[in-house]
Amino acid sequence: MTHEVPLPPRTGLPTSEQRLHAALRYAGTDAAAPPGAVSRAPHRAMITGLAALALHCFSAAPSLLDLERIDVLVPELDDSARPGPRAPSPAVCAYTSAHLVRTRILPEPEEITGLPVAPAPRALADAVAQLTDAEDVRRLLVEAVRGGHCEPQPVVRELTRARLLGLPHVADAVDSLLAEGRALTEGCLYDMVFTHGLPDPCWNVELRVPGGPPVGAVDAYWPDHGVALEIDARTPRAGAEAAWDAYARKRETLEQLGVTVVHVTEAKLRDAPAQQATVVRTALMTSCEREPAAYLNVLPR
Predict the structure, then answer these.
(1) pLDDT for residue 35 is more than 80
(2) Distances in whole angstroms, Cα of residue 297 to Cα of each of 96, 201, 209, 281, 288
(3) Residue 161 near residue 125 (C-beta atoms within 8 A)
(4) Which residues neighbour 119 within 8 Å (Cβ) at sequence distance 6 or greater?
(5) Minimal CA–CA distance to 259: which of 285, 233, 295?
(6) Which pLDDT belongs to residue 91?
(7) N or C terminus of the chain: which is more exposed, having fewer CB within 10 Å?
(8) pLDDT tens digits for 61-119?
(9) Could you name the domain of life of the organism this protein comes from (predicted)?
(10) Distance linking the first and last C-alpha atoms of the chain
(11) Cβ atoms of 22 and 69 closer than 8 Å
């Protein structure tokens, strides 16, 4: 639910900082409150949407000076519990407006330049809700991952919560988001293998029982050791539960065939590659202590 109120005309152009403070003040919060109050104040508003993305340093977002309005995320409360909007700052001119975005789930804000700002995934969802150009949406979502602002999963979760995935231009952009996330994660996997001196695996292959049905695809496979590695890149999209069930069945089948399956996540590959390399190396070194895995055909995926 949104509510937009233009701020009154004044002479002179306000700075970006003045516009941000004015928008927060209108929303009923004190932008000058100490940092500790950001997480404790139940009614505290936060900058969101394109303005928040600009503060997160998204190059695909317009500059703060180019924005006609500042989006502010506020909790959806009963009228009796909701603090009323305050008078806007006199430093703001006619070209500025505050756009209140009400939500039942208020995220934990991040502090940027002393101001409460919505986390990148939530700011993206609020920005995408206002955009209709497919290329603008795609650029923002791809930059979220490529620029290291956040992982794909929380972005998809926020878009799902906002019921935006049903829009064709958003769904197409999410496909680009996931592809970008997948490429970066595979790059982390390659770096982990080579940096930590692991044996070269067969990359991105499909395993098949000779003369039988395919077992499934894996991201890396060491046939001499009977060790497979898979990256968990699940997202909360429609059909995700069915995809997880298929993954669980594949893993069970591989283990029945004597293949050790190492399961890694995007976050662990990025934040703790040495730890993940140790897990893989341990699985490779202990393969001689296990029953040999069944012979499998290894085919390119």
Answers:
(1) no
(2) 64, 14, 6, 23, 20
(3) yes
(4) 107, 108, 109, 110, 150, 154
(5) 295
(6) 41
(7) N
(8) 999 989 988 999 998 865 444 455 544 444 444 445 788 999 988 999 999 999 999 99
(9) Bacteria
(10) 45
(11) no
CA 140 to chain centre: 11
CA 192 to chain CA mean position, Å: 22
What's the fold here for domain 188-300? Endonuclease; Chain A (3.40.960)
* Residue matched to tokens 């988001």: 177
Pairing of strands 227-232, 260-265: parallel
pLDDT in tens, 200-226: 999 999 999 998 888 999 999 999 999
d(CA 70, CA 48): 8
Q: What is the pLDDT of residues 259-272, one digit of tens each?
A: 999 999 888 898 89
Two structure tokens written together for 191: 């770096």
What confidence score (pLDDT) does residue 32 get?
Answer: 42
pTM of the model: 0.74
**Which segments of the chain belong to CATH 3.40.960?**
188-300
Asked whether 96 and 70 are in contact (CB, 8 A), the reply is yes
43-70 burial, b if ≥16 CB within 10 A, otherwise e? ebbbbbbbbbbbbbebebbeebeebebb
Residues present in the chain in total? 301
Q: How confident is the model at residue 15 (pLDDT cuts 50, 70, 90)?
A: confident
For residues 94 and 14, is the Cβ–Cβ distance under 8 A? no
Torsion of CA 164, 170, 171, 176, to 10 degrees: -140
Long-range residue pairs from 269-275, CB within 8 A, at least 24 positions apart, any chain: 269/185, 269/188, 269/189, 269/192, 269/231, 270/185, 270/188, 273/188, 273/191, 273/192, 273/195, 273/196, 274/196
